[in-house]
Structure formats: structure tokens, C-alpha cells
Amino acid sequence: MxxxxxxxxxxxxxxxxxxxxxAALVAASHPAPAQQQEAVRSATAAVVTQEKDPSPTVEVLxxxxxxxxxxxxxxxxxxxxxxFANPGSSFRGLHESMINYGGNQNPEFITCCHEESSxxxxxxxxxxxxxxxxxxxxxxxxxxxxxxxVYNAYVDRAPVFMVIGNTVDAATRRPGVEWAHSVQDxxxxxxxxxxxxxxxxxxxxxxxxxxxxxxIATTPPTMPVLLVADGDLQETPMRPGEGPHIPKITxxxxxxxxxxxxxxxxxxxxxxxNPVIVADRCARTPAALKLLVELAETLQAPVVNQYGRxxxxxxxxxxxxxxxxxxxxxxxxxxxxxxxxxxxxxxNFRDQLHRTSRPVAKPGAKFIAISSTDLNTKSNYQDFQRFxxxxxxxxxxxxxxxxxxxxxxxxxxxxDRKRTLEQRGKKLADAQQAARERVLAEASYGWDASxxxxxxxxxxxWAQVKDKDWSLxxxxxxxxxxxxxxKHYQYIGGSGGAGVGYGAPAALGAAVANKKHGRLSVNIQxxxxxxxxxxxxxxxxxxxxxxxxxxxxxxxxxxEVMHLQRMANRHQRGITTAEIGTTIxxxxxxxxxxxxxxxxxxxxxxxxxxxxxPALKRALDAVSRxxxxxxxxxxxxx
Amino acid sequence: xxxxxxxxxxxxxxxxxxxxxxxxxxxQNGRKLFENYGxxxxxxxxxxxxxxxxxxxxPKPIAFTAVQRYIRQPTGQxxxxxxxVVSDKDLADIxxxxxxxxQPPPVxxxxxxxx
Lengths: 638, 115
Hints:
The structure holds two protein chains of two kinds.
Chain A: H1 11-17, H2 21-26, H3 34-43, H4 45-50, H5 67-77, E1 82-85, H6 92-101, E2 108-111, H7 115-129, E3 133-138, H8 141-155, E4 160-166, H9 177-180, E5 196-198, H10 203-218, E6 225-230, H11 231-235, H12 259-271, E7 275-279, H13 286-299, E8 303-305, H14 324-330, E9 333-337, H15 342-346, E10 347-350, E11 356-359, E12 366-370, E13 392-394, H16 398-412, H17 415-444, H18 454-465, E14 470-472, H19 477-482, H20 503-515, E15 520-526, H21 527-530, H22 535-542, E16 547-553, H23 558-571, H24 591-597, E17 601-606, H25 609-624, E18 628-634
Parallel strand pairs in A: 1-2, 1-3, 3-4, 4-6, 5-6, 7-8, 7-9, 9-12, 12-13, 14-15, 15-16, 16-18, 17-18
Antiparallel strand pairs in A: 10-11
Chain B: H1 2-11, H2 27-36, H3 39-43, H4 64-72, H5 88-100
Helix pairs in contact in B: 2-5
């Protein structure tokens, strides 16, 4: 048989050529067929040439340049800093290439203890860093573990880039477990809640699909994407001189709203007596925060922050989040910026035996939505919410649309109108100040209670962090009400899909991103969430990720306690039993001891509010040394 | 959900106003019932209110008759507590507990709330 022009040995051919591992070793004294010898020599040319006396009967067991090396080149070109992964044999080639060929730098391997944690870490990382986090996982068992976190990222419109291992060719799979870890169509498991996926069959295909996936993930609406890295493709040696092309990485400009719709929106907002701006997942980048301030000040309009992202400074006089119901009820024009649930924003829904709803906005109020979600909506999972009665809808990225909208509003403002709007702004500032005083008064109730009130906990933390460059990498309502937020990285929004188990790993992923900026990452952590995958504590210690975790330990899946109570009351039986199956007591978990067992500084459990400040100081000392620390605070329910 | 919870709080915002004549009750037993019957779940163990779940109930609760009317036939999100599950006597004890809740110090006297 003639020598191929581009001789190469895939894993399949390699095994055929050598008659397979043990058999080949047993038969080592027999001359190998000429074709096999040729193929083996070609594939391992670099190795063979270094050997003084290559024996034709010696099985070739090494290769210099597996395909996974090139995959590393591609991933490096995309600028990933970290890989969040639990190790798995289906991507062993890629894993080895990354740490040896790639030097375990850019990206660096972050060892996770569960694939759900891997994806949630990438999710949290993406919201601080503004670009996708990278995840490696098994295509089967790993992706099944990861799927809940993928769904969270999808609903939260957060970009995550996943590479999963799989072995498509049944003839090359190892008997046993590798069959259980192989799948015809790996991505189908999460296709309903990812934006795009592919299964490349060549290295060139991998390069193009990786760049394509990155571009798709980062184009609003940003979402998770997935690539399958076939096992054979990873482990097959590259042909000598083979050099697939990595396409030029040019990201898409985010889609801006139609100019006519922008002008009409500006006309409605400038003419309105009581316009309201509602922002949810609006601020993809720090730029949006400044733009939203400019729009609000241009219109002297109240802003309601629904906290999908850090959209608007909390102390700004136009921030009327505390008065959201009042300003929405009075509004004659409501502009929703990446609002996840517009219908729920302008309607009241009552969860009684007979579910009812009623509008909370005035009849005739104009509803305007700018949302990139309209550009990519799927059918199976129902996260798109109830359909709102919109008067104007722009399928566009809100942040990208803000500059044109601001300019359109400014063009319409006359001197008289500006003076009128200034008066409105002064009233709103007064109302905001009054609301602030009410919030502080509310926080004072139960101040000395044990279990510790959540308001007290929030303010004890605030006292320790407010003079530092802090970043709240979790969701906490009292902190939202009481702390002074004015930077984009100071808040990362929620989970998206409300899948429990997101909080702890997302906080850690965000802390990974904050580390290089020297920021103090603060995580107010729910107990039930941490118990989904407490291995994140070990990850934080192993990789020396500075993070202050303060447990909001109400010893329950408290949302579910309330749901059970609702059912028990409705059925008029067993109202004292709502804690069965919903609480995390008997025994109580010692989170500080659990943290210490994994190398994390642990304090608590703290039940006396007067002990909290000193415990936080000790924990922050550890964090300032670059370590993670946890303070277990036994709290009121909410 | 965020909006629903806000509405829930607002719909009960008149609860903590002025005390009114009420049947005699046992505040110690009322505190136990407040926990056992799950009132604390939404309103906090000290009746201080819960964020997004339920308003503050004490100190200075609204009139007993208004409390009674509301828990039997709530117009907001609160689940109904009928007489079958919370007797008028138990409710009187719970109300006595709400009346016994102490007023916190003024905000200006709490250093952490003045930063």
C-alpha cells in the first residue's frame, strides 16, 4: 500500500496498527506490517528521530503534538484566564495539554468539586469580568451534574463557555466506564437552555466553532455555549507541519434599538408627567451604570432597580427602588430596560386558593420595553414570563441603546420642560430621603435579637467593609437597602433560574475575578445553598482565593417553610408542622468547623449580635492575607 | 416575585399602628404560639417583619379586631389562619405577645445605623 501523502495516526488507526495495547506487546517480537510501521513513524517523527536505534518491533507509545495542544492554542487565543473544572477522563488529553503544553497559565486550572460548582463559578466570574468563564466537564456525567447551573446562567443571560469531553467513535472506546461516559449527542441535554453548541470533527472545525461560540455567547442576549471536544480529536497526534488556522476573533457589536422606536420612546418619556425607568439586567458593563444616570438625570425620572445587575447608584436621589410600588402606580410611562418580568412589574398577583391578579399601573400608562431577550427566546423552559401589554417594544440591547435614547431625549427638551423636570427631581430627592429614614427605622426593629436580625448582620458587615474596595458577590436584600452601591462590580445580581446551589460557587467565581483587582469580595451566604456543594470551600482554600463568607444561617430552606405553611393553612390542618422536610436542624450544622476542615478560616456559630463585629474583624484579617474566611451567623429567617 | 413581595408588605403596612382594646392574653404563651404556628416565618421571631415576606407586627400592633379580621380573611398574600387552626384564645395570646414587644432604641442612638 502506498504511503499516504499526509500520513497520520488517529487513535483508532493507532490501535488497529498495533493490534491494540496488550496484544501488540505480546506480539512485539513479530515484525509489524510495513504500512503500520510507516504510519507509526510518521505520527511520532519527532520522537523517533531522537532515538538512536528505533526498533521496528517497538510499539510507539508517545506523541509530541496531540490535537489537544492545538485546542489549547485556540482557548488561549480567546483570552480565557481560568478553567473551572472537576477532572474527567473524557477530556484528559485537553486537561494534560492545558497544564503542561499550556503551562497552566491563561487559562489556569481551578479545581472544582462538582460540575455544578464549575459552571456556577464561571457564571459568577463572567458577571464581574464581563466575559465568559471557561468550563471543562465530562460530556455525560459531568454535564448532567452541571445542567442546573447551566440553566441558571441561561436565565440570567450570562455567558459561559463550556468544553465537554466525549468519545464518539464506538470502536475506540475503552470497555466499561468509557461507554457509560459516551453519548451520541452530548449537547442535547442542555440544548434547551444554551444559545449554541457544536461537535467539531476536525481541529480546523474546532477552531472555527470555538471562535464562533465565543462570539455568539458574548452577543446580547449573552448566554452559555457548548463545544464537544471529541476524545479522538484530543488525543490524535497532529500531522507534522499541520497547523489549523485560528480565525480572527471579532466580536459582534451589540444590537441597538431602531432609530424610529428610539425617537418615539424619547417623545413619550419627555412628555410624560410621571415617567419611570425600571432596570433589571440592564448593565452588562460599567458603562451602562453611567448611561442610566445620564438618562435619569436628563429626564429627572425615578429609577427602580430590580437588581438583575448593578444598574444604578443606590444613594442617587432619583433611585426610587424603595418606593417602587408608589412610582409605578403613579406612572404614565414606564420604560423597562432588560426587565425579566414586565408583566409582574405592572401587575399584582395573589397566591391564594383562587389565583388572581390586578393591574398596579394606571390605565392608559404607556409601557415600553427594550430587551435583547426578544432576540433569542426558546419554547420549552418557561422563563420568558407572562406576556405584557406593551405599547412599544425594542428587540435590542438596552445598554447599547441608551446613548441614542439619551440624545433623542435631550433633543426634545425645551428650557421650560427642563425647569418642570427639575421640580420633579427635587420632589423625588425628598421622597428618597424620607424612604431612607424609613428603611433605617425598619432596620432598628429586632436590632439586639438572637437569632441575629438580617438587618443587623448587614450593617455589622458594612461597618467592616465600607472603607475598603468591596464587591458584594451575593444577593442580599438588606445590603441592597442599606449599603452604598455606586460601582458596577459592587453587585452581581442573582442566580437567574433560582436553582439552589448557585450562591456559594458563583460568589467564589466572582471572587476569582476580583482577586487580580485587589478587591474585597463579600458573600452573604445562605445555609441551604452552601449545603448543595460545600466543596467550594475547599476550592477557595486550595487556590487561595480571598473571600469573606458570612453565613445567613436560618437553619432552613426558608422559602419552602413558608410555602408549606401556606399549604397547611389553606388546608386547615397541621399548621405546626411546616418545618418537617424544610428545615436544616437536628443536628445544627457547624459551618465554621466545616470551613476549618477544608482549610478555610472559620468563626462561629455567632448567636449574640455583639459578638459579630469582632468575629468579622478576625475573619477579615485572614482575608487580607489572601485567604478565604467564613463567619457563621445564626440569623432570623429573613 | 420581587414585585409580589413588595405588594405583600405594602398591603399590610397598616398593621403596626396603635394598640387597641383587646381580650386578655398570655404574652409568654403568645410568643410560643407565634413560633409554633409559623407567624415568625414571615414576620420574624421578634415580630420585626421580614424582608419581602411580611410586615412588622409589633411593637404597637394595630387593633385586635383588625388583626383578627385580617388573619381570618386576608386580602393580600398572607395565608388564612381560620378559627379551626388558631382559636380566638390563641390569637389573644399572640396579640398579647405583639403588645409586649419592646420599642427599639431610636435610630440616632444606634451607631451602625448612622454611618
